[in-house]
Each structure stands twice: as structure tokens, then as C-alpha cells.
């Protein structure tokens, strides 16, 4: 599996490298606003994309690095709280009022650093122990925000956080917000695809497959893993910024254990073998969350959500991606291994 | 071939996504009302009862208002502000409701008020959420609360504890969010004014299991403990306090001594008898209007023997909404302006007396002081002791004087 095209006589053009399926999907996503109402643009489109980003950051860790984390929502929460604390909010606690072009890089950077720290703590463990450590961190952060009033304003959290207005555009309006989410998602998606085929990405996957051998060859396994955490933290941080603009608020409920599990569900249901998986998972998750109550009434809609997820994982342990592969061989396989 | 198949798949996905947005059209013979309640998470049982209350009001109207059919669209939150706003967004922006009843819990109410400001054409009526700042500070023009707030619910209790019970020193234990702050504020505002002292206040997170450190900080010489905890939290605290050898009598917040706690087994049963509390309803209220309401309520699926204050709150707000809709002949085509004018001038006859709203669109209503008592069959209930007539949001204190007390918080008020 290499990046280099098999036909060495010429370099493929940009369009060719992107591939027809991506172009078709991209066109669809670009044209989606033409057919969607405002609600479908933000609550379904934008929200799916940003939840997909969170899933993507987990997919990067779990799919390529073999590290299942429950702390991605915590990292997103760090970014979201940073925007609330350094930017403006109407809660009367902190809200330093820095401009967005300062708060956003700061928030994303902090998320990356926090993520790298969580990575540094957890990379020496494996499997269920990684899950337990990250779960402990997520739970700890939830209770900390819940009970800290000086910085995090406790249970109420922060409200009145506005997305920036520049170039004459309010970025929380449905159309700009959708395209903003789409742009961030596309950049991160492409970066993950590219990164997975880079030297670093290949090394990371080799570490996932056989850590001891990689260590014996002389690779610094720990450093590779921590760096993967840092990259995943950047993606989760971007998702966190979008999330706080989307909701206009952030509170401990945003970073609760339930939310942490949602991210895992999204990634697992979508599929961990390819970066497109989390986005598919997020779309299904968001659609179910929003519309299950209309399908089965108010009493049993959570049961329906659970059953659908169970069904997907039961039929295909690889999630939706695995399902697609069963329907049409090569359908989902191709982009993962471009030159199999 | 591969591209073809994938494109078809993508197209199928896209059409599936777009279809629901096209299919929604408003029938002019129906009025859509959104009801937002907590149907997930720790408060599910309470949310379901709130829904029953709202439906009781709808059923009393035979499912019609101003000659139009009522269509109820339900939204669900898990008591977190984020989920409440998302559910409201769906009801307003996707379902297109022009009137919405909800939410249930304190911080949710504050979040929905903020959301209401971004939807000036939609009229919001509270469910049972009882944080003071939902209507007192920076209120939204289109948010009405025909149920009272948590400080109002405490009206008369501070005085009662000081004068009738003779308590002078009271410690408080309450959950750590806006509704209990409001309750403690309401209790202390009166109690401290009478000359009572509150030497210690403990705030615990919702869902706390271990109260040993809290119990250790309660001074030994207090006359009573004021407890504002909900459901399982109250049971956990009370049994642990008793196991630790605590003997101080209790004063209950509005949801502390409800049926979920009163029906718990063990020695708590004996300790609870005589506990004073206050709130918008009383189990033993014996008026024709209340009894009729209880009968109507019991027709709902899964109803409790007696409606909870959540059923009551949603009922009162829905009833006010239907009365106002009747008055404007179901016409909300003007962005709800006429409806809001009607709501502002409305006086509703409810099972618990007359309710009207003040300039901030917050209810003025009766509050009931109760004491836990035992029926002959050994079950506990809240016996009505005293009715405090027509309590307003400032608890009878002049507006500016009341505002000078400051925003409710963990530290405000204080009288050590």
C-alpha cells in the first residue's frame, strides 16, 4: 500500500487523484442547500457534519492507531469552553471578549495540547485500559465543569455565545453555517485520507498492527501515538468550535458521559475502516435522534434508536461501511486501499 | 459501473434527506402546539407526568380550540439546556409550531428564554421550569410563565418555620443548579427577614450518591435542615443522614417531599411525618375545582393517584394558552401579537385558584404550605396547612427592593 500510482510514467491529475466518487459526493453536498430547508441545513446537515468531525477524530485514533478513546467530546469541550471564556458570553462569568480570529486558533490549539496530554497518559495502555482511562478523564472533566464556578460557571455553563460576523456574513445563518461545517469537514477528511497514506500514517498503522515489532525496528512508538492524539485533538477542537457556535451555548451537559458515548456510537455504527464512516454514522445518528420521536411516539423512541444501532452492529460489525461492502464488493473497499 | 452504483446510492440518500422537508404543509383547520418535556434521562418520569398534565387540558377542550383541531407535536429533552434548545428548534423550525409549551427544568427554561428571543414570531409558554431569572432578569417578550417560580413556591414557608415551628438556626442542603438556588433564595428571603440564621449551605451535584462529607459539614446545633433535593437524591440524603445519627427535623423544598420520596420504605417514613413544605399544589386540597382536575387527570394513561406539580404546571400553562387562543379565534397569522396581548390580560381559573401574569409575564398565583401527614392506611401525603393567596414574583416585596437582593446564586442570599 503506497501513495505512488502504479503507472509510473505520468502523475495523475488532481481530479483523477480525488476520484469520481468523491467528486459526485462533493457536488451533492455543495448542492444540498438547493433542496433543503433551513432546519435541514443546520440541524441535520451542519450538525451531522460536525458530529461526523468528532467521529472522525475518534476514527483517526481507533482506525489507524488502534486506540479507542471516550474523551473526544472532552477535547471538543475544551475548545468550546475556550471560545466561551476567551470570547463573549452573556452569563456574567469571564468572557474576555477577544476577537474570533484569536479565540479560534487558541481554542483549537488548546484542544490539541489537551489531547496530546491525554494521549501521553493513555498510550502506554492498550484496549480496554485505554477506554477506561479516557472514560475516567471524560467523567472527571464533566464533574469538574459541573462544580467549578470560577472558570466554568458550573451546571449552567455559558450562554449567548455568538458565531462571528465577518465579510458581511453572519456565520451562524443556516447557509453560511452549513458551508462552514462542510468546508471544515472536507479539509479534515482530506487531511486524514492524505495523512493515512503518508509515512507517518503508515507507521501509525504498522504500530497498530504490531507494536512490538515496530519498537524493535527502532521506531518511537509512544511519540507516534502521542502525535496521532495531537492531530485527533485538532480535529475534535475544530468540531468543538463549530458545536459551540451551533448551540450558542456550552454547559456540562455538552461534555457529559452520554455525549462521549454518542461519539463512540457514531464512529462504530458508521465504520472505523475509512474516514467516510463517521460521517455516515453521524448522519444516521442525527436523523434518528431528531425523527425517532415522530415515528414511535414519545415513550419508546430511545428503544428504537437503540434497536437500529444494535441491528447495524449485529448485521455488520464494521458498521455501515461493512454493510456497503456486503451489498456491493469494492463499493467501500476501494478508497481505503487505492491500489490493492 | 462502480461510479454508477455509488452515484445511485448517493442520490437515493439525498432524496431521502430532502423528502421530509417538502412533505410538511400546514392544514388551516388545525392548530399545531409544540409540547417540550424531558422524556429522557433522570427526569423522564416527571416529564411524562408533565405531558399528561398538558394533555388533560387539551382533552378538557375536546381536542379543539376556536373550532380548530389541536395537533400536539412532542419534543423531548434530557434536562440539559442543549437538548432543550435542540428539541425546541426542531418544533419551531422544522414542525413550524407557532406556540410552544415547555420546558420542565430550571436551566432549560433559561436556555429556552434565550432561544425565544431569536424567534419573535413564536409564543412560548413555560412548562414547570422554575428558575427565577427566566422571567425576572432580561426576560423575552414572547415567553410566558403561568406556573410560578421556585422562590414563589416557598412563599410563607420561612415565616411558618420561624413562627409556628420555632426554628432559629437552619442549615440548607440543595442541588447545585438554578432551580434549587431559587428555592433556597425564596425560603431564606422570608426566614432571614424574620430573624432566622442560616449557618451553613451545602450544594451537591445532581445524582450525588455519597453525602457523608455534606453531613459532616452540617453544624450539630441547628434546629432544622432545609432540604431541596429531588427524587433519589432526597432519599439517599435522608437515609444517610439518619444512619449517621442525625436527628434534626427537616424542612422540605417543593419537590423534596413529593410522592417519589414519600412512598420510599424504611425508617424515613417516620422521620418525614410533620415535615413542612410549600409549593404550587397540595395533595389534600379539597376544592371542587381541584377534585375535578384530579378526575380528569386520572383519565390519562399511566397517571399517578394524584397529579404531581409537573402535571399541574403543564396543565395550567396549556389551559392559559387554550383560553387565549379561544379569545383570538385561533389566529396566530400576525406573528402571535394578538395572542400575546390576550395572554398578558388573561386571568385563568385553575384548580389552584386564579392565575394572572405580571409585566414580566410571570404568574401571580396561590401557594400552599403543607405538612407531611399519615393516612389511616399508613401512606404519607402532604396535608394542606395554609394557603398563601396570590403570591407575586417579588414575594410581596417592592420590585426595586427585591431586585436589590441581587441575582440568586450559591452565595446569595446569606444570613449567618
TrEMBL record, chain A:
Location of this chain's protein in the cell: Cell membrane
Which one of the record's GO molecular function terms can you name?
A: branched-chain amino acid transmembrane transporter activity
Where the protein is mainly located, per its record?
Answer: membrane
- InterPro entries annotated for this entry? ABC_transp_permease, LivM-like
The transmembrane segments are: 20-41, 53-86, 98-121, 128-145, 177-205, 226-246, 252-272, 279-298, 304-324
Q: Could you confirm whether the keyword Membrane appears in this record?
A: yes
Q: Does the keyword Manganese apply?
A: no
Q: Write the record's keywords in alphabetical order, separated by commas.
A: Cell membrane, Membrane, Transmembrane, Transmembrane helix
Q: According to its record, what are the GO cellular component terms? A: plasma membrane
CDD domains given in the database record: TM_PBP1_LivM_like (cd06581)
The record's section on Pfam families has: BPD_transp_2 (PF02653)
Domain of life the protein comes from: Bacteria
Record's bilayer topology term? Multi-pass membrane protein
Recorded hits in PANTHER family, A to Z, give: ABC TRANSPORTER ATP-BINDING PROTEIN (PTHR30482:SF17), HIGH-AFFINITY BRANCHED-CHAIN AMINO ACID TRANSPORT SYSTEM PERMEASE (PTHR30482)
The protein depicted here goes by the name Branched-chain amino acid transport system permease protein
- This chain's source organism reads Amorphus orientalis
TrEMBL record, chain B:
SUPFAM superfamilies assigned: Periplasmic binding protein-like I
According to the record, the signal peptide region is: 1-25
What is a single Pfam family found in this protein's UniProt entry? Peripla_BP_6
What UniProt keywords are attached to this protein's entry?
Answer: Amino-acid transport, Signal, Transport
Leucine-binding protein domain boundaries: 30-373
Q: Which CDD domains match?
A: PBP1_aromatic_compounds-like (cd06332)
Does the keyword section mention Transport? yes
**InterPro entries, sorted:** BCAA_transport, Leu-bd, Peripla_BP_I
Its GO biological process annotations read:
amino acid transport
Supply the PANTHER family for this chain: LEUCINE-SPECIFIC-BINDING PROTEIN, PERIPLASMIC BINDING PROTEIN OF ABC TRANSPORTER FOR NATURAL AMINO ACIDS
Q: Which family does it belong to?
A: Belongs to the leucine-binding protein family.
Please give the name of this protein: Branched-chain amino acid transport system substrate-binding protein
According to its UniProt entry, this protein's organism is Amorphus orientalis
Amino acid at each position: 500500500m503506497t501513495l505512488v500510482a502504479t503507472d509510473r510514467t505520468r502523475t495523475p491529475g488532481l481530479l483523477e487523484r480525488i476520484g469520481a466518487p468523491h467528486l459526485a459526493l462533493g457536488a451533492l453536498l455543495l448542492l444540498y442547500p438547493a433542496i433543503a430547508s433551513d432546519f435541514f441545513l443546520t440541524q441535520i446537515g451542519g450538525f451531522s457534519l460536525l458530529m461526523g468531525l468528532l467521529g472522525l477524530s475518534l476514527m483517526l485514533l481507533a482506525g489507524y492507531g488502534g486506540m479507542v478513546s471516550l474523551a473526544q467530546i472532552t477535547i471538543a469541550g475544551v475548545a468550546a469552553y475556550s471560545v466561551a471564556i476567551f470570547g463573549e458570553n452573556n452569563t456574567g462569568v469571564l468572557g474576555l471578549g477577544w476577537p474570533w480570529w484569536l479565540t479560534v486558533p487558541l481554542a483549537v490549539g488548546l484542544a490539541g495540547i489537551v489531547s496530546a496530554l491525554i494521549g501521553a497518559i493513555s498510550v502506554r495502555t492498550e484496549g480496554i485500559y485505554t477506554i477506561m482511562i479516557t472514560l475516567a478523564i471524560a467523567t472527571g472533566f464533566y464533574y469538574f465543569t459541573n462544580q467549578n464556578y470560577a472558570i466554568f460557571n458550573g451546571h449552567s455553563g455559558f450562554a449567548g455565545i455568538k458565531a462571528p460576523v465577518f465579510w458581511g456574513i453572519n456565520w451562524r445563518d443556516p447557509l453560511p453555517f452549513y458551508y462552514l461545517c462542510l468546508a471544515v469537514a472536507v479539509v479534515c477528511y482530506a487531511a486524514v485520507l492524505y495523512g493515512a497514506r503518508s509515512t507517518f500514517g503508515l507507521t501509525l498503522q504498522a504500530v497498530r498492527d504490531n507494536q512490538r515489532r515496530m519498537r524493535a525496528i527502532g521506531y518511537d512508538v509512544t511519540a507516534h501515538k502521542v502525535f496521532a492524539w495531537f492531530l485527533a485533538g485538532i480535529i475534535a477542537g475544530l468540531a468543538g468550535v463549530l458545536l459551540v457556535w451551533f448551540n450558542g451555548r456550552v454547559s456540562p451537559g455538552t461534555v457529559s458521559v452520554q455525549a462521549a458515548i454518542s461519539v463512540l456510537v457514531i464512529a462504530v455504527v458508521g465504520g472505523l475502516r475509512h474516514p467516510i464512516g463517521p460521517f455516515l454514522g453521524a448522519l444516521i445518528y442525527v436523523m434518528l435522534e431528531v425523527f425517532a420521536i415522530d415515528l414511535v411516539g414519545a415513550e419508546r423512541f430511545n428503544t428504537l434508536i437503540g434497536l437500529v444501532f444494535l441491528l447495524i452492529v449485529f448485521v455488520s460489525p464494521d458498521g455501515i461501511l461493512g454493510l456497503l461492502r456486503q451489498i456491493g464488493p469494492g463499493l467501500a473497499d476501494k478508497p481505503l486501499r487505492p491500489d490493492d | 459501473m462502480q461510479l454508477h452504483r455509488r452515484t445511485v446510492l448517493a442520490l437515493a440518500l439525498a432524496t431521502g434527506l430532502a423528502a421530509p422537508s417538502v412533505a410538511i404543509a400546514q392544514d388551516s383547520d388545525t392548530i399545531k402546539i409544540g409540547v417540550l418535556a424531558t422524556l429522557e434521562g433522570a427526569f423522564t418520569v416527571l416529564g411524562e407526568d408533565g405531558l399528561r398534565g398538558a394533555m388533560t387540558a387539551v382533552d378538557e377542550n375536546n381536542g379543539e380550540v376556536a373550532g380548530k383541531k389541536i395537533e400536539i407535536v412532542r419534543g423531548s429533552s434530557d434536562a440539559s439546556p442543549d437538548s432543550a434548545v435542540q428539541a425546541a428548534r426542531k418544533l419551531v423550525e422544522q414542525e413550524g409550531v407557532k406556540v410552544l409549551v415547555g420546558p420542565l427544568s430550571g436551566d432549560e427554561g433559561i436556555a429556552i428564554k434565550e432561544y425565544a428571543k431569536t424567534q419573535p414570531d413564536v409564543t412560548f409558554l413555560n412548562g414547570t421550569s422554575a428558575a427565577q431569572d427566566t422571567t425576572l432578569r432580561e426576560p423575552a417578550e414572547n415567553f410566558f410563565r403561568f406556573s410560578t417560580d421556585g422562590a414563589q413556591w416557598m412563599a410563607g414557608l420561612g415565616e411558618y418555620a420561624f413562627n409556628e415551628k420555632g426554628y432559629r438556626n437552619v442549615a440548607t442542603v440543595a442541588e447545585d443548579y438554578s432551580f434549587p438556588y431559587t428555592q433556597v433564595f425564596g425560603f431564606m428571603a422570608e426566614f432571614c427577614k424574620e430573624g432566622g440564621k442560616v449557618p451553613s449551605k451545602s450544594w451537591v451535584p445532581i445524582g450525588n450518591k455519597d453525602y457523608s462529607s455534606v453531613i459532616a459539614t452540617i453544624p450539630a446545633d441547628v434546629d432544622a435542615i432545609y432540604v431541596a433535593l429531588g427524587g433519589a437524591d432526597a432519599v439517599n440524603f435522608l437515609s444517610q443522614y439518619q444512619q449517621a445519627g442525625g436527628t434534626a427535623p427537616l424542612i422540605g423544598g417543593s419537590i423534596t417531599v413529593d410522592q417519589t420520596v414519600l412512598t420510599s420504605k424504611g425508617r424515613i417514613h417516620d422521620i418525614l411525618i410533620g415535615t413542612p413544605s410549600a409549593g404550587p399544589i397540595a395533595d389534600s386540597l379539597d376544592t371542587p375545582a381541584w377534585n375535578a382536575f384530579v378526575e380528569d387527570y386520572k383519565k390519562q394513561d399511566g397517571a399517578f393517584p394524584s397529579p404531581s406539580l409537573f402535571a399541574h404546571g403543564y396543565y395550567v400553562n396549556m389551559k392559559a394558552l387554550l383560553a387565549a387562543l379561544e379569545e383570538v379565534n385561533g389566529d396566530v397569522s400576525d406573528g402571535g401579537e394578538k395572542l400575546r396581548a390576550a395572554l398578558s390580560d388573561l386571568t385563568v381559573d385553575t384548580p389552584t385558584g386564579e392565575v394572572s401574569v405580571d409585566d414580566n409575564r410571570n404568574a401571580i398565583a396561590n401557594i400552599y404550605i403543607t405538612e407531611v401527614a399519615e393516612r389511616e392506611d399508613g401512606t404519607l401525603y402532604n396535608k394542606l396547612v395554609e394557603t398563601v393567596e396570590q403570591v407575586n414574583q417579588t414575594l410581596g416585596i417592592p420590585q426595586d427592593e427585591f431586585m436589590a437582593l441581587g441575582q440568586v446564586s450559591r452565595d446569595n442570599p446569606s444570613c449567618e
